[in-house]
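Hi all, long-time lurker, first post. I run a small reading group and we've been trying to get comfortable going from sequence to structure in the token notation. Rather than ask abstract questions, I figured I'd post a concrete chain and ask someone more experienced to write out its structure so we can walk through it together at our next meeting. Sequence below, copied exactly:
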Amino acid sequence: MLKSLHIKQFTVFQDARFEFSPGLNVIVGDNGTGKTHVLKLGYLFCRAWPDLTAKRSRVNVQRAESYLDERLAGLFRVSDLAMLVRQGSKSGAKLTAEVGGHIPTVQIRMPDEPPFTSPGLPEDMPWDIQIQRTKDTSGTLKAKVVPDVVPDAAATNAFLPQQVFVPSKEMVSLFKGLIGLFEKYREFPLDETYRDLAVAMSTLEPREVSTLLPEVMQRIQKLLGGDLKLDNGDLVFERSDGSQLESQLLAEGHRKLAMLIYLLRYGVIERGGTLFWDEPEANLNPAAIKLLAEALFVLTGLGVQVILATHSLFLLREFEILRMKTPPSEQTIPRYFGLDLKRTQVVVSQGDDISDIDPLVMLDENLHQSDRYLALP
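-- Answer (accepted) --
Happy to help. Here is the structure in token form:
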């Protein structure tokens, strides 16, 4: 899970700190304030350990440098990392993250006890890197990653559950052949979050039913009238009567809800992992947003960290309603972040309540709209 993120001189951020909740985290702000950048950086550092240790190799500075250099370029789709350094910065950018991993642990519980929300003992995985401008052998000024701190002291058997990033564009209709297109074309016009999600979805359905499929997920399935399934490498929608429908023929909003159920049923979203979601409310009607909000809220109570960026005041209100209806003993305290562009830098406000966000752009615009409507003759 992502504990904290400190961003200095990176894209629109001069100096911004984020302290995350292990449960629900909501980032709001106007366009161009860096919401997606925060999600991608969090995802980068949460994916780094499992990617670097996938071949049972130790994490060290040299391997981390190569990995982070390539991944930053792929996630942000830049040919030169210097483009990620905030304009006017002479010293480059600095990124610091605290990630919480786990050490495998035997867990015993009685049948009537709820499942554990953590998959193991906690293990800290700190990251501290710089993006510095240097000259290459030809004298051209380029930027590269310089890791100052990597989690090389973490236990060799430490692990992070699968991290999932759901981008803002709907993914289901793009699934077929997406991995091959990334491999074939160097300048394919999508960032690597799409490829990562396609790879994660290209898996077999586990024999055991996920413990993260509560009642709200069943209601979504009832609304959709079926489920997404992987059939010979293609995503198809199987109706309740057994007939199949090409996933592209589903309404776009329904494809998004169906994908969430798919990610849970196929074990892509795991207890102890983090779900990053950019604008989950896009193309959903209010009734569907309500179901989505309930599903995400329930997941946070089952040990899944959720970090999302949104423009939807409706979604925010649903989270608040759910929070007020849930006993404190059954929920984790959420975290809200407001990003506001002031002059040439983004200022971050954060807190455990929506009222801590200053200003709440969506609320301001809703109030202005109400005033304009009431002023009409």
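A couple of things your group might point at:
Residues 35-52 form the longest helix (18 residues).
The first strand starts at residue 2 and ends at 10.
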